[in-house]
Design a protein that fits this description.
2 domains; mainly alpha; Rna Polymerase Sigma Factor, Chain: A; 10 helices
Amino acid sequence: MDKTEDTLTSVINRAKSGNQKAFSTLLDTFWNDVYGFQLIRTQNENDAEDITVQTFSKAFDKLDSYDDAYEFRTWLIAISKNLHIDLIRKQKRNVLDGPGIAQTDEIKKVLDESPSPEDQLIQEQNLATLLYYIKKLKPHYQKVINLRYFNELSYAEIANQLHEPINNVKVKLLRAKKLLAEVIKNDD
């Protein structure tokens, strides 16, 4: 995506109205910025990736509160920085597990989106070949793909099984699909 103000504003507005391609565009455009920022702060790839997933999850959940007087990237970095600070505080308090997922009607009513281009590419692959490609992903991405496509669980069911907020599951699945699609495309 071109990061011009008009285009970015348009993408953000489409994302605010629930357009999944707009969410995907924002994730693709700003993933490296947030991940790179966290990699420098945490000096750990797994922590940087986890915080980046949480950043996008929180940002997408609170997108209506974004003030376009500020640069979108700066807003994401601020969220990311605060999440990292929260993580450090939790570690200092020796809190091992965060709160579980609340069993609310909202989670049960979440509708799964129609297949994205990545979903379609994944579904077209031969099962054995697909499993080969999935094994190339990091374990947490393998797990979320397996739960979604092989166990056919909804986002809410995956969130319950992984004990993570549903928005984290959505972002992880989106990222896993993108990475899997890249692995498939690069191998062809």
